[in-house]
Amino acid sequence: MSDPYPYNGRISRWEEVAPGLVIVGVESLDPPFAFEPGQYATLGLMGSEGKLIQRPMSISSSADDLSEYEFFIRLVEGGAFTNLLWERKVGDPINIKGPKGRFLLQDDGRAALFVASGTGLAPFMSMLDTLRDRGQERQVVLLHGVSHEHDLAWRDELEALEREGFPIRYVGTISRPQQNPSWRGLTGRVETIVESQLDEHALTPETATLYLCGNPEMIVAVDESAQARGFDAEQVRKELYWPKGRTHGVAVGAGAAVTDAEDDDEADEEAEP
Ligand SMILES: Cc1cc2nc3c(=O)[nH]c(=O)nc-3n(C[C@H](O)[C@H](O)[C@H](O)COP(=O)(O)OP(=O)(O)OC[C@H]3O[C@@H](n4cnc5c(N)ncnc54)[C@H](O)[C@@H]3O)c2cc1C
Question: Three-class SS string for the chain?
Fold first, then answer.
């Protein structure tokens, strides 16, 4: 019989950003694995039926600090893994495997446009933290789209990075301004501001590579407008958190209906322990 307790990590940190939205730290109890910024790990928890429920999660921390892997996770209503995770506390065991994925910062000397929806900010935080840890710079425009102002995780840190002179332009946009009356920034889903931001920052197929991470509707929309502007497929790097398809859950706290997977082995990993 397989090991009923296949845990090789422990939850080391739990920081609530907003209702249903957390930054989670995981320490490896095995020798930690190295990773490239932009890659993900698979986190696993034992479900009630004795099955290890596993989901891919982008690592948000620096690739130069393996003492703790950091993740930025949204609770999904009815979601198998995230509901198990929300029952856990700091110190509890968890399974972690990695690294995986090819969503990497390209060594192409181009400016980077990072477009993140919701928790799709995670890999970009890892890229930026790693660049900073290594004393490297990169021309970056980072667009982060969320429902509510309080979902703009790391906003203070990103604004500070900009003030410190790192060549980043950070732009947050919220899709529910009527529920955030004090918000003075851009409004609308992140895909609706991409064209104007490309123009504002003079990002063209000759000068820039686009990196898109998060929900499929955003990625499809931005990919289409980038292609229409003449960006090659190679210049539009994509990390979909779930495939475009049938209607499914609601992100708790975001209040937005989303669509569900068809047959994605990454987004829906469930394995016997
Ligand atoms: C490469 C990769 C990296 C990922 N990184 C992250 C990450 O850093 N943080 C993170 O929170 N999630 C991330 N995900 C999504 C994650 O793997 C799970 O799909 C998500 O946590 C839901 O799992 P669940 O078991 O709770 O829901 P399930 O029972 O598996 O239901 C999954 C369905 O819930 C919906 N869903 C998934 N995520 C969301 C969401 N954020 N908001 C609204 N609806 C959603 C989709 O319809 C999806 O098909 C990533 C996915 C991939 C493929």
Answer: CCCCCCCCEEEEEEEEEECCEEEEEEEECCCCCCCCCCCEEEEEEECCCCCEEEEEEECCCCCCCCCCEEEEEECECCCHHHHHHCCCCCCCEEEEEEEECCCCCCCCCCEEEEEEEHHHHHHHHHHHHHHHHCCCCCCEEEEEEECCHHHCCCHHHHHHHHHCCCCEEEEEEECCHHHCCCCCCEECCHHHCHHHHHHHCCCCCCCEEEEEEECHHHHHHHHHHHHHCCCCHHHEEEEECCCCCCEEEEECCCCCEEECCCCCCCCCCEECC
